[in-house]
């Protein structure tokens, strides 16, 4: 618990508490000036054919895009942001009940990341919650303080997950998979919310909030809030694009499972979070995941249509998660374990 960046005693860090926060020189921001490219912002209220084309183009080109007019009420987004920020402002004693260093526990408050493979540390605290299906047991595992937390999370997560499922349907239509390909087991595992909290950092030049990583799941919807910090790899050679906050938008990206199921048609792209000295940043990431026993492999229909061999072997999601824990977050090390 004392490891939390935002513990009461250390709410304003004057210096890095620990040399392990200093990332290797080649990973420090800015590794090179952030690129000028911007993520497309797609209006989901446009006609379906236009949305489908835009989502597919953005997904193939950058692997990342933002969506607006997605149907999640702005108020539900604002309320969950406020409840999450309030959670991190609770006194340390109130947060202690949720804190755990046990990475196998789903619902927990922790610091840094599970991606540490050499003891390095990252400038973020995280509240991780299983959020689907929303039933009594799910709700009971969520923080009950601040008092508005559970209701706000529920009002947010139900429509947010639905947007994720709708995007999967649109992507299927776009690439020529049957529209319900990802329904059922492939999206029926846990849906996880990471509430990421990045306190002001005294050494933004030598730290990261999150290391370069690809997400482990199928699809991710990120509410990044009004403070920027997310960067997306673009064009190779250590170039990063800043993701500008767009009010009311979700940032959408594909996880490893979507890349593998589409035989590499949709790419899982590396991203990272940088720190800032002035203000705390809270982001809310929603991850839709397969069930642990789902078999993940390139879709037969796509292979047949393209006349291509599979680029990845088949595996269960459980196997993937086990391997992911040991190889670290970098895209190439994860790929190596599953590429044919
Ligand atoms: C994540 C993530 C980015 C952010 O939680 O996987 O990439 O901006 N978060 O917080
Ligand atoms: Ni991520």
Describe this structure in words.
The protein is 29% helix and 18% strand. It is α+β, with helices and mostly antiparallel strands and 340 residues long. The chain has an 8-stranded mixed sheet. It has a 4-stranded antiparallel sheet with strand order 6-11-8-9, with no helix packed on it. It has a two-stranded antiparallel sheet with strand order 13-14. A hairpin with a 6-residue loop joins strand 8 (230-233) and strand 9. The longest helix is centred in the middle third of the chain and has 27 residues, at 149-175. The mean pLDDT is 91. The protein binds N-oxalylglycine and nickel (II) ion. N-oxalylglycine binds at residues 194, 196, 210, 215, 222, 224, 229-230, 271, 273, 283, 285.
Short overview:
It is built from nine helices and 14 strands. The chain has helices spanning 48-61, 74-89, 92-96, 136-140, 149-175, 256-261, 300-306, 317-327, 331-338, and strands spanning 41-43, 64-68, 108-111, 125-130, 191-198, 210-213, 219-223, 230-233, 240-242, 250-254, 271-273, 281-288, 295-296, 315-316.
Topology record:
Elements: E1 41-43, H1 48-61, E2 64-68, H2 74-89, H3 92-96, E3 108-111, E4 125-130, H4 136-140, H5 149-175, E5 191-198, E6 210-213, E7 219-223, E8 230-233, E9 240-242, E10 250-254, H6 256-261, E11 271-273, E12 281-288, E13 295-296, H7 300-306, E14 315-316, H8 317-327, H9 331-338
Parallel strand pairs: 1-2
Antiparallel strand pairs: 2-10, 3-4, 4-5, 5-12, 6-11, 7-10, 7-12, 8-9, 8-11, 13-14
This protein binds N-oxalylglycine and nickel (II) ion (NI).
């Amino acid at each position: 618990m004392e490891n939390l960046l935002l513990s009461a005693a250390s709410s304003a860090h004057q210096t890095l508490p620990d040399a392990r926060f200093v990332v290797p020189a080649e990973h420090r921001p800015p590794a090179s000036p952030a690129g000028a490219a911007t993520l497309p912002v797609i209006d989901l209220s446009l006609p379906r054919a236009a949305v489908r084309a835009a989502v597919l183009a953005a997904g193939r080109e950058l692997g990342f895009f933002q969506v607006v007019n997605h149907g999640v009420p702005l108020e539900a987004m604002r309320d969950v942001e406020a409840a999450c920020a309030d959670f991190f402002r609770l006194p340390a004693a109130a947060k202690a009940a949720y804190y755990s260093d046990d990475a196998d526990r789903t619902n927990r408050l922790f610091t840094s990341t599970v991606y540490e493979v050499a003891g390095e540390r990252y400038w973020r605290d995280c509240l991780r919650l299983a959020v689907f299906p929303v039933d009594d047991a799910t709700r009971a595992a969520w923080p009950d303080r601040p008092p508005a937390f559970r209701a706000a999370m529920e009002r947010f997560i139900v429509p947010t997950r639905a947007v994720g499922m709708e995007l999967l349907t649109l992507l299927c239509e776009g690439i020529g998979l049957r529209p319900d390909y990802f329904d059922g087991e492939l999206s029926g595992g846990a849906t996880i919310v990471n509430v990421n909290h990045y306190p002001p950092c005294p050494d933004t030049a030598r730290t990261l909030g999150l290391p370069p990583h690809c997400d482990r799941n199928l699809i991710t919807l990120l509410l990044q809030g009004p403070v920027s910090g997310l960067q997306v790899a673009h064009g190779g050679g250590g170039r990063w694009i800043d993701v500008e906050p767009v009010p009311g938008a979700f940032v959408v990206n594909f996880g490893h499972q979507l890349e593998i199921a589409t035989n590499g048609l949709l790419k899982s792209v590396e991203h990272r979070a940088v720190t800032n000295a002035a203000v705390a940043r809270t982001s809310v990431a929603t991850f839709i995941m397969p069930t642990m026993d789902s078999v993940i492999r390139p879709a037969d229909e796509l292979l047949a249509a393209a006349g291509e061999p599979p680029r990845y072997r088949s595996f269960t999601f459980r196997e993937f998660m086990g391997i992911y824990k040991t190889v670290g977050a970098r895209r190439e090390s994860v790929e190596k374990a599953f590429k044919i």
